Amino acid sequence: MTRPGPAPGLTPKGGVEESPLRTRRGRPCVGPGADTLRPYATVIAVAALALGTGVSVRAQPPALSVTHRARALQPGEAVLLVVTSAAPVADVRATAFDHEVIFYPGPTPGLWHGLAGIDVETAPGVYDVAVEARDAAGATVATARHPLAVSRRTFPTRRLAVDDAFANPPAGARPRIEREASQVEEILARVTRERLWGGEFTAPVPGATTSRFGRRSVVNGELRSIHGGLDLRAKTGTPVQAPARGRVVLAADQYFAGNIVIIDHGLGVFSFLAHLSRLFAVEGQEVEQGDRVGLSGATGRVTGPHVHWGVRVQGARVDPLSLVAVLK
Ligand SMILES: [Zn+2]
């Protein structure tokens, strides 16, 4: 795994600004942009000539270049798309993995950032990201395509042989499980179209990882679950902190997750913090990074105390540590 450097244009701690080109050369995971620019402005210029206005003004198309930052282009990884526009544009959007990516201005003029997620179950292959820049009136002024070649990833698998009574929740719990699952899906579908988080994401507790993201559990020969987050060691009562700024959209007791807090960080990015012994956060509350949303515990279906931290990016389940890495 390649530890990514600072985002193009971001000033890292050393104070040296890194250009997108240098980033491209330096790191294999920062892909070169295979950008095709549609010359809308050229069309306008030609049309002006055809009208016989004699105006020789050549509108300059706002050329877009697209790069990305990721630990790896593999299932379960967050990808930071970095768009550079030569001319000012009002808005940048993209479609990646069938989801809309809403960009936000980067630290320097003309630089835009957008987060995409490669879901843990994404099949290997090349996925095109379609980028579009718009002017203040909402008209598309430039487009570009950026291919992301997702490679295969093998996740650790644990095989368990247990009594069926333990492998399956009781029939009486099923309505509750289904209700809670659909409630979470509804929450994830409501995308806040502004960025609520500030800079980096940080782990909710300082403990080491005890169960990695993506681990498969095969119970009695059948794939039963894929770990959609990572488990962090924390003895019961450890303060659980918001990984980044956002709004609490769920603070509830669920069958599997126990006491859970879901934080909406904006632009389709959500954190799940589960198995808490106590909830401090309430739904609708705005939290700053580091605010205590509860205390760790062992509620829900767990074998011991820990904090489960899950991250969704436009619905995709990604390793929270990949998000930490790309936003550093
Ligand atoms: Zn977990």
Topology summary:
Blueprint: H1 20-26, H2 40-50, E1 64-69, E2 77-85, E3 91-96, E4 99-102, E5 104-105, E6 111-118, E7 125-134, E8 140-150, E9 157-160, H3 164-167, H4 174-189, E10 209-211, E11 216-219, E12 222-226, E13 229-233, E14 239-241, E15 246-254, E16 258-266, E17 269-276, E18 278-279, E19 286-287, E20 292-295, E21 306-313, E22 316-318, H5 320-326
Parallel strand pairs: 9-11
Antiparallel strand pairs: 1-2, 2-6, 3-4, 3-7, 5-6, 7-8, 10-13, 11-12, 13-21, 14-20, 15-16, 15-19, 16-17, 17-21, 18-20, 21-22
Bound molecules: zinc ion.
Zinc ion binds next to strand 13.
Describe it.
The chain is mainly beta and 328 residues long. The protein has 2 domains: 20-150, Sandwich (Immunoglobulin-like); 157-326, Distorted Sandwich (Glucose Permease (Domain IIA)). The chain has helices at residues 20-26, 40-50, 164-167, 174-189, 320-326; strands at residues 64-69, 77-85, 91-96, 99-102, 104-105, 111-118, 125-134, 140-150, 157-160, 209-211, 216-219, 222-226, 229-233, 239-241, 246-254, 258-266, 269-276, 278-279, 286-287, 292-295, 306-313, 316-318. Strands 10, 13, 15, 16, 17, 19, 21 and 22 form an 8-stranded antiparallel sheet that branches. Strands 1-2-6-5 form a 4-stranded antiparallel sheet, with helices on one face. The protein has a 4-stranded antiparallel sheet with strand order 4-3-7-8, with no helix packed on it. A hairpin with a 2-residue loop joins β21 and β22 (316-318). The protein starts with 19 loop residues before the first helix and ends with a helix. Mean pLDDT is 85; it is low at 1-58. Zinc ion binds at residues 211, 227, 229, 231, 308.
